[in-house]
Amino acid sequence: MPRDGATGGILPARRADSLDRGEPGSWRAGAPPASASFRLRGGLPVTISGPRPPQVPDLSPEARSRNVDALASREHDVLVVGGGINGAAIAAELAQQGLLVALVDRGDFASGTSMGSGGLIWGGIKYLASLRLGLVARLCAERDRFVARAPHCLRERRFLAPVYAGDAHGVFTLAWGTRLYWGLGGFRLSHRPAVFRTPEAVLAAAPHLQPAGLRGGVAYTDVQIVTSDAHLTFEVVRTAAAWGAVVANYVEVEGFHRGDEGRIASVDAVDRVSGRPLAIRTRLVVNAGGCHADALNAQAGFDRPAHRLVLRRGTFFNIPFGAFDAPRAAIEATCVVIQSAGDGRPFFIVPWGPSVMVGTTDIDHDPSALDDVRTTRDETAFILRELRGRFRLRAGLDAATVIESRVGVRPLAVRAGADAGRLAGREALALSRDHAIDVDRRLGWISILGGKITPARQVGAEVAERIAWFFPEVWGGRPRLDTRRIPLWSARGLYAGAGKGPDGGGIPEDARPDAAREDFTEAVRRQAETWGLDDPAWVEHLVAHHGDGAPAVLDRVRANRALAEPVVPGLPYRWAEVRAWAEQGMVTTLDDLLRRRTNLAQWAPNGGFGRDGEHAAAIRRAAEEIALARGGGAPAPEAMVEAYRATVARRNAWRDEAEDVPVPGGAANRG
Fold first, then answer.
1. pLDDT tens-place string over residues 266-295
2. Which of 231, 255, 567, 645 has a beta carbon 3.0–4.6 Å from 268's, enabling a disulfide?
3. 3-state secondary structure at position 320
């Protein structure tokens, strides 16, 4: 069923024709014109059709099958290969500009780097050390736009940066840096930086810090994804689908065919769900393959790119609040970022749901081992050593205490001729996480290397510019739509529900994202109360994870109260959400559902099974929900569970290597 099929009377009817449109070929709120006249950069006058208005996206298993059919049955303007945050944002941008777009990924959406980040939408404060002020200003602007476009799942968070004796940067330096950071961000975040001039002031804000050697600290504000990076990526995929993109996960590209003029004309692929071979006709290919981008370049015959990748692996641990010797409320109130005692890199302590995310490591990763990404013993020792040195821990914190390891490989873009010897080890810590875009006009190929979650929309806009400039025959002279103030699909109703904007369309200039979210959440809470569902915490969770689709999830509970039962005791997810994701989340496997659409695999030990397998029945029931939604072609629930158990075992292999890592903690650690 359509995701917003039941609004419970909270939301007004959506109008797809009410979005603000920008330069060039600009028009404002109201129905898009049947055609528009303007000039290409070369001066040629053209008359073309406007972008298609968005529609409620269907992401059901049946829709995935139809999308696979559409991949092979029509010619696409652009095929985007790679469904991480860059690929999703590019697909959304190009679809919003009116191009016929297809988006595929060899696995699930966000199943690579985009599910292993630190979960922050940040302005790049660390780049101030290298005086990259322009980059920081751009990242801050995109951060703030992202907050406005997705207020349901992004929140401002306070970060405390303590300073210890021997740290590379003192209180004075950090104080000026955080003020500059705030200024480069246009003074838009709600809290100004603060300076803590005494250890006592720092400990009052973060009592889980070690007092020994503490000199002072500063506080600043940034933004956290309160759901997950993978969830946010899927919200961008949903937005692309709403604007007409054909999206399909588990479609692997296997080869490329060139036409008479040497340009790629079709792509060989296979649907990994059914085994069906596909021939995808396209006029242009965008390589958004993340860590696989170099391999895709070579496979396509793009043999002289200007950039290549350096791969770096980072690990975060999710640990329980009880690992720290401090009240949970105090830990939840503030994120902490310390300067690593080892090499000075930022080391984060970020409250996230019912856990605390700690890390990260930053080490070289072998390009030949992309199918075997796991935490090593040395990384485990590094994280536990940093925790022991700067935080008050309860006795017994070891690898077994860790709920889940979040490990991801980061693709960093460097010049193709860069000296490989200088890009390893400590030298790589200084590499920029900025993106690079390479174009081969002859081949009809655009390649994206590097990048982060924060500037993903900007990456999409830059790709649109490259297409308009280098491939005008593909672009077709379409008028440009200014996407900076178009909300993600699931956030449209938040502005409408708050009385902002034209029926949830473009975001008004005077809109306050936090107020829109709070007003919408209150409206949903009141509706839930009328149905006898008095649970404000769950309503907040629903709005964060489902946006303006939260009322439809509540409507499922109204129809079947058994769906209000928690999936796992102590976690916020209910069975109504599992069913909603199974039916409208393009879910194929348990890993899709438990690791990427929800956080059950990260907030409950052993991938959701529990430390002693106590949640195995819930995992089995989740498999049954997926099988029911997928219909006759789905594997049996037992087969899904066994496949998922094997996936969890591979992810947990690091624990065997970490058994002999020294245990931090104990009385000596509590200051």
1. 999 999 999 999 999 999 999 999 999 999
2. 255
3. strand
